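Data availability (excerpt). The following record was deposited with the supplementary files.
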Amino acid sequence: MTHLYTWVIHPDNTYEISIDGVEKQKGKLEEDWDVLPAKQIKDPNASKPSDWVDEAKIADPTDEKPAGWDSIPKTIVDPDAEQPEDWDSELDGEWEAPQIDNPEYKGEWHAKKIDNPAYKGPWVHPMVANPAYKPDSNLYVFSNIGGVGIEIWQVKAGSIFDNILVTDSVEEAEEHAKKYFTELKDDEKAAFDKFDGERRAAEEKAREEAKAKADAEKDDEEDDDEDDDETNADEDDDEHDHDHDHEDL
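Predicted structure:
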């Protein structure tokens, strides 16, 4: 379906963006768009002190590993495993029971964590005024527009962009939108719904015809199988009668 995108920029450097006449975003050009250097930058002369502690937790130095922790194996021999009856030691080698996870194994030991008494919190780089920043009250001004660029990301082909108007009159833009969008969108929607309905009906009809064809082919195959069974039965009867005649002779 066709959609109308409108971006209005005001002389006070504010803006509004709407889609199909519904406002979706508004704000200030300088705050929402990277049109000017930042007002503040990180102080190039500042750096995190070498003794700054930013680890909130540390290993408890008083916590000790329990005795025998490292002697617990990760896997053990499966106690329920039995040597197969057809195991041939000469051909298959000596049988060994498979290994399973040891339910007693607790993994690698780590000391519990405690609050770090030397923790100073995250270090924040101090900010200073950006010498490259200069306010501009004329951000809204475009003195020479040579073209309009559209950058999109899409997952399906077929998008068309047309009727692009750049003007310094909101009223002119609204009249243009009325003529090329507002007065056409209802008819476009009706035409689309009609086309979509016909397409769906055609697809449904094609599915029904394909199903009917498949059912007919299945019935024909079943009839052929029944004919083959009857033919085989007749041949068996003929052979049986022939055997009797031979016995009578």
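Summary of structural features: The CA atoms of residues 53 and 119 lie 5 Å apart.
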